[in-house]
């Protein structure tokens, strides 16, 4: 019988590999590099993106935006690996997690279009470059 510790190490290594593979798309990397450059210009103490901050942004709750959308999870569900629904139209939304929707966050124009529309709805303002990078980093790890 294999050691439980060895089994845990193998599963952890596999999970890490899957998460790294999810962020490996060169288009997504280019988008994140652009946000990192913007974030560094906005704040010289910028030290990188955080999946934890991205998770907090995704789950909210936030004030300032629409009452119906106090968080991204209002439409996209608390579990980004499952299908969401638009709060008003009921239209299905593909899962936000990159592990389920691998092309997510790979088209720069589409990414910006969504942030420009959704940040004011959720936050009541535009997202910063750091917030955008944190958000993508979180969802690329799911």
From TrEMBL:
<dbReference type="InterPro" id="IPR009056">
    <property type="entry name" value="Cyt_c-like_dom"/>
</dbReference>
<keyword id="KW-0408">Iron</keyword>
<dbReference type="GO" id="GO:0046872">
    <property type="term" value="F:metal ion binding"/>
</dbReference>
<dbReference type="GO" id="GO:0009055">
    <property type="term" value="F:electron transfer activity"/>
</dbReference>
<dbReference type="InterPro" id="IPR015170">
    <property type="entry name" value="DUF1924_SHP"/>
</dbReference>
<keyword id="KW-0614">Plasmid</keyword>
<keyword id="KW-0732">Signal</keyword>
<feature type="domain" description="Cytochrome c">
    <location>
        <begin position="49"/>
        <end position="142"/>
    </location>
</feature>
<keyword id="KW-0349">Heme</keyword>
<protein>
    <recommendedName>
        <fullName>Cytochrome c domain-containing protein</fullName>
    </recommendedName>
</protein>
<keyword id="KW-0479">Metal-binding</keyword>
<dbReference type="InterPro" id="IPR036909">
    <property type="entry name" value="Cyt_c-like_dom_sf"/>
</dbReference>
<feature type="signal peptide">
    <location>
        <begin position="1"/>
        <end position="21"/>
    </location>
</feature>
<dbReference type="Pfam" id="PF09086">
    <property type="entry name" value="DUF1924"/>
</dbReference>
<dbReference type="GO" id="GO:0020037">
    <property type="term" value="F:heme binding"/>
</dbReference>
């Amino acid at each position: 019988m294999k050691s439980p510790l060895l089994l845990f190490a193998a599963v952890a290594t596999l999970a890490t590999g899957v998460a790294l593979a999810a962020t490996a798309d060169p288009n997504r990397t280019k988008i994140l590099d652009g946000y990192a450059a913007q974030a560094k210009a906005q704040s010289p103490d910028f030290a990188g993106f955080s999946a934890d901050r991205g998770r907090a942004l995704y789950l909210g709750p936030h004030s300032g935006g629409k009452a119906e959308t106090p968080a991204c999870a209002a439409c996209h569900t608390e579990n980004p690996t499952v299908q969401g629904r638009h709060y008003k139209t009921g239209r299905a939304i593909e899962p936000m997690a990159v592990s389920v929707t691998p092309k997510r966050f790979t088209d720069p124009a589409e990414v910006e279009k969504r942030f420009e529309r959704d940040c004011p709805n959720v936050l009541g303002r535009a997202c910063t470059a750091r917030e955008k990078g944190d958000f993508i980093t979180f969802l690329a790890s799911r």
